[in-house]
């Protein structure tokens, strides 16, 4: 985290005057957005690049559509999405320069798109533990959402890292020790078969700071950017990665969903292997294998 720049403060104040933006902090961990947080008041979500800017209206509309459907807080929009290239949107700096005593920098903030959303209280849950009842409630809640009205706002399955093409599959398997290749192939073959599983609302990353808790009570769910109509077992798999894989049988809808969650966990481990194979530096393969090979082997057993 870091302090906001004057340009970021100007953009935030232009879109929504009032919150103490100058006292906020900027969270830089997201792949698609920077987030200026005025603690307890509001957040400014800023697209990192043109691709994220193009997706911001859809992602914002999805959060707004989900808010009344969920028992948890979702970051609703407090302003329209501002696009730097949209001449029909008011200049966010105008509100700053119009106020008595305010000054406006000559340069335009280098942000292609932004929106102010509600602040969702709470904090990330301690990893490697969790209340199975509360986690199962999340799985059941998402399973109960009708995705049909949301379909135009949802991302595609595999939107984050792309589908398992033949080339991607071959690269991931080639990066593994030879003895692990049959298990990897079994996992990838099995998730292909999951394409026929009836879909449901899948969040895309139910972990860490995307879930805001007060103790073991879930207050809100953030970052619906990758939400898709997909295999519901993925929700249990994501929760298990953060809270503990031993909890998956207790939070999945049934035994079959728990089994599919285990297979998906192996596929996510293979994603990490594939990503490492693309790096131009020298990854610590020994460390990566220690973390991923047990997951791949466990997933291969579940795939059978």
Count of discrete domains: 2
Number of strands: 9
Which CATH architecture of the largest domain would you pick? Alpha-Beta Complex
Query: By helix and strand content, what is the structural category?
Result: alpha+beta
- Could you tell me the radius of gyration in angstroms? 21 Å
Find the CATH topology of the largest domain.
Aminoglycoside 3'-phosphotransferase, Chain: A, domain 2
Beta-strand portion reads 5-15%
**Which superfamily, in CATH terms, is the homologous superfamily of the largest domain?**
Aminoglycoside phosphotransferase (APH), C-terminal lobe
Spatial shape: globular
Strand order of the largest sheet: 1-2-3-5-4
Structure description:
- The radius of gyration is 21 Å and the shape is globular.
- Strand 2 and strand 3 form a beta hairpin.
- It has two domains: 6-118, Phosphorylase Kinase, domain 1, CATH 3.30.200; 132-303, Aminoglycoside 3'-phosphotransferase, Chain: A, domain 2.
- The model is unreliable at 87-109 (pLDDT under 50).
- With 304 residues, the chain is α+β, with helices and mostly antiparallel strands.
- It is built from ten helices and nine strands.
- The protein has a five-stranded antiparallel beta sheet with strand order 1-2-3-5-4. A two-stranded antiparallel sheet has the order 6-9.
């Amino acid at each position: 985290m870091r302090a906001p720049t004057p340009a970021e403060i100007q953009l935030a104040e232009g879109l929504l005057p009032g919150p103490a933006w100058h006292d906020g902090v900027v969270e830089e961990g997201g792949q698609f957005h920077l987030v200026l947080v005025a603690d307890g008041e509001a957040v400014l979500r800023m697209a990192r690049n043109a691709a994220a800017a193009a997706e911001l209206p859809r992602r914002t509309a999805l959060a707004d559509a989900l808010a009344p459907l969920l028992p948890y807080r979702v970051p609703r929009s407090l302003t329209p999405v501002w696009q730097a290239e949209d001449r029909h949107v008011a200049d966010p700096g105008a509100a700053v320069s119009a106020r008595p005593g305010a000054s406006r920098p000559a340069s335009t903030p280098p942000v292609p798109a932004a929106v102010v959303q509600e602040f969702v209280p709470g904090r990330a849950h301690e990893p490697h533990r969790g209340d199975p009842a509360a986690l199962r409630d999340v799985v059941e809640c998402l399973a109960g959402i009708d995705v049909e009205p949301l379909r135009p706002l949802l991302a595609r399955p595999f939107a984050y890292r792309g589908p398992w093409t033949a080339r991607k599959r071959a690269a991931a398997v080639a990066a593994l020790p030879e003895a692990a290749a049959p298990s990897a192939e079994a996992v990838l073959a099995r998730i292909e078969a999951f394409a026929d599983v009836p879909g449901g609302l899948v969040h895309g990353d139910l972990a860490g700071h995307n879930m805001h808790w007060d103790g073991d009570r879930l207050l809100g769910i953030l970052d619906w950017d990758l939400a898709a109509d997909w295999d519901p077992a993925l929700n249990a798999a994501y929760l298990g990665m953060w809270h503990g894989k031993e909890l998956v049988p207790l939070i999945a809808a049934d035994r079959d969903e728990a089994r599919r969650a285990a297979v998906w966990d192996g596929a996510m481990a293979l994603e990490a292997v594939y990503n490492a194979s693309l790096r131009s530096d020298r990854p610590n393969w020994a460390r990566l294998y220690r973390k991923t090979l047990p997951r791949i082997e466990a997933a291969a057993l579940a795939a059978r």
